[in-house]
Amino acid sequence: MRGASRGGFGLVGPRRERHVVAAAELDALALPVGDDGVVIGVDAEGRPAVLGVNRPTPYEVTLIGGLWTAQVLALRTAATGARVAVETGRAQVWSGLAQAAGGGQPCVTLHEVGRVPPQGASAGSPVLVIRDCGMRPPRGRVVAGPWQSVLTLLPYLSPTAPRLLRQASLAGVQRVSPDEAEEIGRLMHLDRAAVDSLPTLGDGVTLWCTPRDRQFVLTQGTEVETGLLGAARRID
């Protein structure tokens, strides 16, 4: 009966016209679709770009770029409820972020190079390990596994970069020299347009790529992120 109560659900609400789209109009709809994860910026069309770092399978990311981008990613990953463990030889540049993240909760922890303890990652407590260990990072004691992703930050293309790029599930490349761009293009099978663009990328722009797919993403800091980390920059 109209107006009757539905047990436990209250009264039936008002009836409104259905929203219907003709089949011929479907192509005009554009919905951002991607994995659940961290919004790392917007793509060339202004759509949200999402990096799914919390996964049930091992996931390795190599970022040839600046500290600023890695730190924004750390903050946004922590905001999703994941824990972030930073392996670094320059704890002083991470200490402010670690203190500010999580509202006083220890969601971002700092560790000396080679001293990251087992993190106990799980579906209810995923972990991102960020390795900020310079141009020649040693092989890590803590590796990618279920619900534990690893991001290795390289400031420039180094002798260890080819190995890291080959084993990575995803690579991020920010502004590099023309010679570095050529080498990265060979390693990642980039087309000529992508290779030529790498030396000219603006601060905050990253080419995220696999051997098959690639996407340019612009990361812009929020007011809080900019207050803590400063403006987007490629060079630390």
Strand content: 15-25%
Task: Report the biggest beta sheet as strand number plus sense, adding barrel if it closes.
Answer: 8 strands, mixed
Overall SS class: alpha/beta
Radius of gyration: 21 Å
Number of strands: 12
- End-to-end CA span: 68 Å
What's a concise summary of this model?
Helix content is 21%, strand content 24%.
Secondary-structure blueprint:
Elements: E1 5-6, E2 10-11, E3 38-42, E4 48-51, E5 59-64, H1 67-79, E6 83-88, H2 95-100, E7 108-111, E8 127-132, E9 148-154, H3 161-167, E10 170-173, H4 178-188, H5 192-197, E11 205-209, E12 214-218, H6 223-229
Parallel strand pairs: 5-9, 5-10, 6-7, 6-8, 8-9
Antiparallel strand pairs: 1-2, 3-4, 10-11, 11-12
Describe this structure in words.
With 236 residues, the chain is α/β, with parallel strands linked by helices. Helices cover 21% and strands 24% of the residues. It contains 6 helices and 12 strands. The strands form 3 sheets. An 8-stranded mixed sheet has the order 7-6-8-9-5-10-11-12, sandwiched between helices. Strand 6, helix 2 and strand 7 form a beta-alpha-beta unit. The protein is globular. 35% of the residues are buried.
Comma- or semicolon-separated keywords:
two-stranded antiparallel ribbon; disordered N terminus; 24% strand; single chain; eight-stranded mixed β-sheet; 236 residues; alpha/beta
